[in-house]
Amino acid sequence: MNQAEGVPSPAPARTGEIAFDRRAPGLVGIVVKGFLLSLITFSIYRFWYITNLRRFFWSRTVVAGSPAEYLGTGKELFLGFLVALAILVPIYILLFVIGLLSPILATLAAPISFIGLFVLGQYALFRGRRYRASRTRWRGIRLGQDGSGFAYAGLASLWWLGTIVSLGLAFPFMRAALERYRIDHTLVGQSRMRSTATGRSILMPWMMFYIVALLPILASVLALLAASGFDVPTDLLIQDPASEKSKLIFNPDYADTPLVYYAGAVGIAASVSIPLALLLIPYYRARETRTFLNAAHLGAARLNSSLKARQFYFPYLVYMLALIGFILVLGIILALLVPLIATNGENAGIHAFVIVSTVLLYLGAILGTNVLYVRIVSVRLWHAVATTMQIENLPALEAVLASTRAPASGLNEGLADALDVGGALEIGF
Amino acid sequence: MEAITTTGTFFDGISARPRSVTLRLTFRLDIVGEDVARDWSLLDLRAADAAAPLMRVNHAQGPESVEFADEAFAQALMARCPDLNRTEGGSGVTRLVLWSIAAGLSVLLTAIYGVPAASGLLAPLVPQAIEAQLGRSVDGQIVTLLDDPPLCNEAAGRAVLDRLTARLSEGMALPVAPQVSVRRHKIANALALPGGRVILLSDIIAKARNGDELAGILAHEFGHVAARDPMRSVITAGGTSFLLSLVLGDLTGSTVLVTVGQAAISAGYSRDAERAADAYAVAAVKRAGGDGAALAAILERITDADDEKPDGISFLRSHPFTAERAARIRSLAGEKPTGSGILSEAEWKSLQGLCPEPAKPEKAKPEKTRPNDGKSPTPTEKL
């Protein structure tokens, strides 16, 4: 961000830049304070921590010269969480009692509660987005979101069903359909945003991911199923009698059947494809983010993103290197502690010291990874998405009028927190 | 007062259109532009979060705001506006932290003291049918955990066991008639389950030297049944793990903390239950005419010496140390009675034959698996 951009020139600019200062001074303090206070307050402080993080990221994102404002408060989030808890606790207790009383129902309870919580999670995601939108202000204009959380949850569930039935081929179409629903119900003041995202536009990156990462596993599993007449023996993998019970080996009884080849193929496909899949996820996400941003517009004003896939790889690479360095430092500290334990285990003082320092080391490790993650991954991803974005035809955006709609209530996001879906910061719209 | 000026942008809060203005700071803030003229009191200015040098100032009443990028002007504004960084409602982090700690501690204390106490009151209220149903499903889980050991049902031994059960439970105020089942297993142990179910593992019969020792074991489990300990531990386990995950819920690594914490709480509580069951067993065996101290002898025999060293995880033990238990049992039992014991020599022989060795040797099973080693919350009362 440079100073000249801070104030728009009197002549109305045609394009608006989005700036974000990657150095992010003051962020580490927020993370450290948030983590430590969450620790001693039994994690109740996390709502205020999330609020502080969002205030930081919002206010450092300068859109066409004006910073965004986050108006949410920790108290709203906390109250929303309490209300969501009051809804969820009876459900959890009911599931617990059913599981205890009836083994037959207990086996059914797991899938049923998984599906129920999935649908509820989608609902919570949409409502959480409504809260965040209504707490976002730019140049005095509030954003907003209408639409129904239930409709979104229904849409998402049907699309997921379709995706599973089509063995993953419908995935990009699902993503586009949900993106359209989200963006079409996003308002800037009185003006409604529109998205022209299509599944076809992200079909190529998805197919690349699909062919490399998913297809080998799917094909080999299908082959295994076909070879066994869609009736895989449940004892195909047994516990290794020679060693500890947790280790699974291939049942020697099936050594002479063709199943062994297919099962081997599944193993090989999985061991090659899963690492490849992990490597390709940032690529797909970057492509999807760029395509969806380019498809969003507000009247004549359009977003234009030139996001590169490498900008999504680089943060993770730096994060991994930082993490390795951090683990090395921790390892050295641990190596200094170990002789203490070995030489003088009887002494009560040393014993207490070792326990205390282990706990401190554990907490320090979590704090360190948190700081590194926010500082490197969150900041860099946010920076990459923000600074590669431009607003074309800015005057159309500047013409929007504020809305008189009341802002959404803080209860909207409580469910999302209670269900642990959606993060404090979501990259992209 | 010295006047400072800078250029900035004015927003009316109705539209997003920027208007260039000149800001002039005296004892008020003058905003003058092409079609704008404002004269704001310094008390009404509220700063929004923004990275220096950019500054955004909202008017406290109404939607209007100005933005500028001038560090010197921002400094002067901060010096002259008392309420610039005031947030409505106040933040009060200290108060928040103290209240949160108080709330968390209250939940923790409820988990440690309240839930075990409540479970003692609630357990007798659980309808018999539900407890029996629960016992059935727990029985199934335990059998699966133990790798499906076969039941032992040699008729002669079974008859002796039934007689022994009847004699021991005669003077006891048991809520239900106990159902004792014996399964062949290489671990010397016995378990009490909800609904009056008791499982004896065959190795404990093999390790017992006389009828009084086995009677002691059996009476100990009946002691748990009488105190409704299995049902209480179900309620306690569910309640404490729920409360603990509530207060520790979202911290990283919390599952470990919840498991350890729950084990510590239920173990501390079950050590008391064990001592009570021991005393109960001594009394019952004496009443039936046996040697109450025999329980101490078999406990010492089946205890793994390595398990008995006090160490960092002693607080996780569900049972008191055997030496301590044996001493207490001996002091309670007093003098050895003169009789031959509860079972005659012949009865004891046929009871030992309850679990004959299988005709062909079983496949080598993993030797040292200790099922249900305090890790899973399966509601049982072990020996």
Provide a descriptive summary of the structure in words.
Chain A has 429 residues and is of the alpha+beta class. Chain A has a domain at 307-387. Chain A is built from 13 helices and 13 strands. Chain A has helices at residues 3-6, 27-40, 46-60, 74-101, 103-134, 149-165, 171-184, 203-227, 259-294, 310-343, 348-387, 394-398, 411-419, and strands spanning 15-20, 61-63, 66-70, 136-138, 141-145, 186-188, 191-192, 194-195, 237-239, 248-250, 296-298, 301-305, 389-392. In chain A, helix 2 (27-40) packs across helix 11, helix 4 (74-101) crosses helix 13 (411-419) and helix 5 crosses helix 13 (411-419). Chain A is globular. The two termini of chain A are 21 Å apart. Mean pLDDT of chain A is 81; it is low at 1-10. With 383 residues, chain B is α+β, with helices and mostly antiparallel strands. A 7-stranded antiparallel beta sheet of chain B has the order 4-3-2-1-7-6-5. A 4-stranded mixed beta sheet of chain B has the order 8-10-9-11. Chain B folds into 2 domains: 4-80, Pleckstrin-homology domain (PH domain)/Phosphotyrosine-binding domain (PTB) (PH-domain like); 123-382, no CATH class. In chain B, helix 4 packs across helix 6, helix 6 crosses helix 8 (254-287) and helix 6 (211-226) crosses helix 9 (294-302). Chain B has helices spanning 71-80, 93-122, 128-145, 155-169, 202-207, 211-226, 229-248, 254-287, 294-302, 322-333, 345-352; strands at 4-11, 19-25, 28-33, 37-41, 45-47, 54-59, 65-69, 179-183, 190-193, 197-201, 381-382. The radius of gyration of chain B is 36 Å and the shape is rod-shaped. Chain B starts with a strand and ends with a strand. The chains are: A alpha+beta (429), B alpha+beta (383). At the A-B interface, helix 2, helix 3, strand 3, helix 4 and helix 11 of A face strand 1, strand 6, strand 7, helix 2 and helix 3 of B.
